Amino acid sequence: MNISVFENPIVKEILAKYRVLWGLSHALSLMSWDSETYMPREGVRDRAIARAELELLRQQLLLRPDFVELVEKAEGIETLNEYERGVIRVLKRAIRIAKSLPPWLIAERAKITQEAMIVWREAKAKNNFNAFKPYLEKIFELARKTSDYLGWEKHPYDALVDLYEEGLRTEDVDRVLGYLRSELKRVIEKVLSEGKYPRTHPLENVKYDVSKMEIVNKRILEILGYPLGVRSRLDVSAHPFTIDMGIYDVRITTRYEGVDFKRTLTAVIHEFGHALYQLQIDPALSYTPVAEGVSLGVHEGQSRFWENIIGRSREFIEYIYPVLREHLDFIAKYTPEDIYYYFNTVKPSLIRVDADEVTYNMHIVLRAELEKLTLTGEVKISELPEYWSNYMEELLGVKPRTHSEGVLQDIHWSMGSIGYFPTYTLGNIVAAMMRKTMINEIKLYEKISIGDFTSIREWQRERIHKYGSVFTPKELLRRTLGSEYKPEDLVEYLVEKYLK
Ligand code: MG
Fold first, then answer.
1. Does residue 119 sit within a domain?
2. What distance in Å separates the CA atoms of residue 84 and residue 105, rounded to the nearest whole number?
3. What is the pTM assigned to this prediction?
4. Catalytic residue positions?
């Protein structure tokens, strides 16, 4: 039985009008899930057009004068409860963003990024930066314009990071990444010189049987409490992702490369963390604009928490060891301790997506710095590869030999997603903040060692998940974890795990 938390008649009228927008989002999500999983290749022709048309319709419905007027009217009401205020805040923000960007800019960006993604893929495969360069120039130029239209106070990067993490400012990014940059330098050097954690592991080259690994993944999801088949699915896609059609249908994917089994398993646990956030939103918020995770950083915090804090812990590896042993023949040769080190190798490397917990955030330090410098024109696109290379050497002591393992490695810029990278580090920080609080409040590691994941899920539901987007990310963190993004907790976690 859901008790309605929305009482104000104007807010109720807004929510009634909002339902068609919700319905459109539902359909668009399902279409996008299908595109990434089962759609036949040529289906992309029809799908691209259908999606563009529906996106446009969604935009028109959001900006309908009667709807905007109602939202503005509700904003002035002082007696709204916090759920109602959350709805109005989220809608106002969506309307502001939609109104600020002229249609030509949106069309131009759609056109350029569609071409750029294809060119980028080819350029990366052939190590050809010059082919991608004109597109990257155009993309940064459009990003500058986007930022100007949205408006910014201290730095043009402000408006862009805010799109992914509401309320985030360049000064937050600088504070967090500046701290991590200097602290991690020390931690990385020490972890490497102590050599307790290996740089590579023999299991990385061991092949697995895909059908057996599918069983392992499902068994682990069962242990974690994923409602497979009831409110969720596990499918296969080129890149693992989570998508929700609402709070009663949340789906994740993984991939099977046939070798190095931790890659598919950690992807499953990561996406489970994202899915759990959606699954545990208060049902009373269904079909409203606040029935979504609040930001990319807070979302990534949930996935990194399950993937790294839980999934790579000694307690967890020991707990799931019998399952691995039962289904994967080669495990018999290894102890739980061996498996723990296999899950926790530490090695400064060139590729962000393959980076370990200790070195990962340096990759983000580099990208955020280069995005800022490129946006302001202090670094020209033609100078990017050299900057990338030198900075990489400074941060991690490794230098790319090709553009493909340097400036061309990530898809984000080709998609026009500038300002997105910092949310990965915010996720790592939020995960570490939750860990610290959970150690104090529910003895986190004891819970993991006895497989009591219910207590952990319930903690997350009560403190974070159930609120959806009712509060801004910063307010949510202050209320439930005591402070905004706190990089000290991340460093403390890494020191305790890798140096004690
Ligand atoms: Mg993620």
1. yes
2. 32
3. 0.97
4. 271
